[in-house]
Design goal:
Radius of gyration: 27 Å
Distance between the termini: 75 Å
Structural class: alpha/beta
Helix content: 55-70%
Length: 600
């Protein structure tokens, strides 16, 4: 079978990955190339008697500087591994994209130019003469609208049957003279092939969303709105799942119960695992699609733009705002996402402080405590809104701590000034709701839930064993909590709460189940679907409003989970920075809890 390799290059936010995903479907995997640290996406597709191997190169604006993703893309192109390089361009800002096209043409003549987002260009009154563009570049040019799937198959046709013409400016190296020539030529070509009409003021939304007066209020309102929808929408499915799981637990217990091993599997493994699923799945299935819709719409770069000035005052990078947003889903993902930050110093700051943003695994604990202790007396229709507002306040505290700790790090361990950064504001795009929901459910919800369940299942067995192995007149779990209790009381907690966070190191989702199993000290646990029953259990064990506040603060600020710690170790390749990432949020959380306990 004939085999053709096509590499896909392009600026960020031009639809390159959309084209790649359309052609490859689910036949994808990632990996490094030639020892590089930046991963490439690989995929394949077949048509007729030809197999196409597709390589998605890192998105970059240039191949001239020394950034890791640029170096990876440049060396892959120069290696000659690809039979054709398809450069994806944004039709709404072609001049900027042409600079990369011309740089690649200096390295290879096997180029296909794909002018994408033609539907958006048409809506904005932008017309492009692609025939003239092809003549000036000396390579094939095609038009696509990747979000609609139109024109994309032409890439395979040209790669398989096209004959690439020689270019006048093929060269393997770059210097200042060539860089100036490229910039000048991209301007000349763009002015010749692009015609604009004044159809609409395309920046009117940015005047609102990035303004000093409205930028921050809009961000807060959107955050509170998303949390309100998440909390309100997740209540009923969580309740249904929880009741269903407990119903089956009783049936299973009656069917196979009676032995220690059977009880361990049912009341340990099954109970903790189903608790995690019932409290995590509904909010994640709502939060991740909503968050992905904002990402698909193009709003997240506006968030980074708004926070850039504040982060610069902390001597950090504006792109850290994007990694903070990633942390809402999973801190390990946020840590991995710091690759977008060029400065090693600023990247370390972003890695160390990412845990101050609460991940999805901590939301159930925060939401449960808010519901039990702070809005129990509110009218039913107002409970969701109040929960969202209080959770927003907790998140804002985490963001404020991120800024404060970033500033402290830049003045101590990681001294330095903020580097200049260009934050691109891509055009707003109509989200592909169906694809967004599918992508967020499979790529994010299922991934995070699967990780949590994989951790919760064996942890449930360990917790059950600790709760049922008796030493003296108490369980091992009770012995541990009594040992920790004097220390925990200093910070407004108790030994059970502190022990739950320690045992919850593998995953934050299992903290509440550990607290409940320890308080009951038996397998006869109240139906966890009832918040009022949980509230009564906590009150019986000495919880007050102060305990609830300190537990929420410590939930917000304590050590990262084991997955995040391993990711930090992988990204920093340093035990020192991993240890600091563990200690810093923990010290901050304990300090705030100590002050609250001391004052109140």
């Amino acid at each position: 079978m004939k085999k053709i390799t096509i590499a896909f290059a392009g600026n960020p936010n031009v639809g390159k990955s959309t084209v790649f995903n359309y052609l490859t479907g689910l036949r994808q995997h990632t990996g490094n190339w030639s020892g590089k640290t930046v991963e490439l996406a690989y995929g394949s597709t077949q048509r007729g008697g030809t197999e196409f191997e597709l390589v998605d190169l890192p998105g970059c604006y240039s191949l001239i500087s020394g950034r890791a993703e640029e170096e990876t893309a440049r060396e892959f192109i120069l290696s000659g591994s690809a039979d054709a390089v398809c450069v994806i361009c944004d039709a709404t800002c072609l001049e900027r994209n042409l600079s990369l096209v011309l740089q690649i043409l200096h390295m290879t003549k096997k180029v296909i130019v794909c002018v994408n987002l033609m539907d958006e260009a048409e809506r904005k009154g932008i017309n492009i003469d692609t025939v003239l563009l092809s003549e000036k570049l000396g390579v094939p040019v095609i038009c696509t609208s990747a979000n609609q799937g139109t024109g994309i198959d032409a890439i395979l046709d040209i790669a398989e049957n096209g004959e690439f013409e020689d270019c006048d400016f093929v060269n393997n190296g770059f210097n200042d003279e060539i860089a100036v020539e490229i910039l000048k030529k991209s301007e000349e070509i763009a002015s010749a092939v692009v015609q604009k009409t004044d159809k609409a003021d395309i920046s009117r939304w940015d005047k609102i969303l990035t303004s000093r007066a409205l930028g921050y209020p809009v961000m807060l309102v959107l955050l509170a709105f998303i949390l309100w929808i998440t909390i309100s929408g997740a209540n009923y499915p969580s309740d249904i799942l929880s009741r269903a799981f407990f119903f089956f637990e009783d049936k299973l217990a009656n069917w196979v119960g009676g032995t220690f091993f059977a009880d361990m599997l049912i009341h340990g493994l099954y109970r903790v695992m189903t608790w995690v699923v019932s409290v995590m799945l509904p909010p994640m299935a709502i939060f991740f699609p909503l968050f992905t819709l904002l990402e698909d719409l193009g709003y997240l770069p506006r968030v980074a733009f708004n926070l850039d000035s504040t982060l610069k005052k902390c001597h950090a990078c504006g792109k850290q705002a994007l990694t903070m947003c990633m942390g809402f889903g999973c801190n390990a993902v946020g840590v991995s996402g710091t690759k977008i930050i060029d400065s090693p110093r600023e990247r370390l700051i972003a890695i160390i402080t990412n845990n101050f943003v609460p991940c999805n695994g901590r939301f159930p604990t925060l939401i449960s405590i808010i519901a039990m202790f702070f809005i129990a007396g509110a009218y039913p229709f107002a409970k969701g809104a109040l929960s969202a507002l209080l959770l927003t306040a907790v998140i804002l505290l985490g963001i404020a701590m991120t800024f404060a700790v970033s500033w402290v790090l830049s003045k101590t361990f990681l001294k330095g000034k903020a580097s200049s950064v260009i934050i691109e504001l891509p055009p707003f795009r109509k989200p592909q709701i169906g694809k967004v929901i599918i992508r967020s459910l499979f790529d994010r919800t299922v991934f995070v839930l699967g990780r949590a369940v994989a951790v919760a299942a064996p942890t449930g067995i360990v917790i059950y064993l600790l709760a049922n192995i008796i030493v003296g007149d108490m369980s091992v779990l009770t012995h541990i909590s009594h040992f920790l209790d004097p220390f925990a009381r200093i910070f407004g907690l108790d030994g059970v709460i502190l022990m739950a966070f320690i045992l919850g190191l593998p995953a934050n989702e299992i903290v509440v189940p550990i607290i409940i199993m320890t308080y009951t000290a038996s397998t006869q646990i109240t139906d966890l679907s009832s918040l009022s029953a949980m509230h009564s259990l906590f009150l019986q064990n000495g919880w007050t409003i102060k305990t609830a506040v300190c537990t929420m603060i410590f939930c917000l600020m304590h050590w990262p989970c084991s997955t995040t710690l391993l990711t930090i170790k992988k990204e920093t390749k340093s035990i020192k920075w991993t240890a600091l990432s563990f200690a810093l949020p923990t010290v901050c959380g304990l300090a705030v809890c100590f002050l609250i306990n001391l004052i109140f």
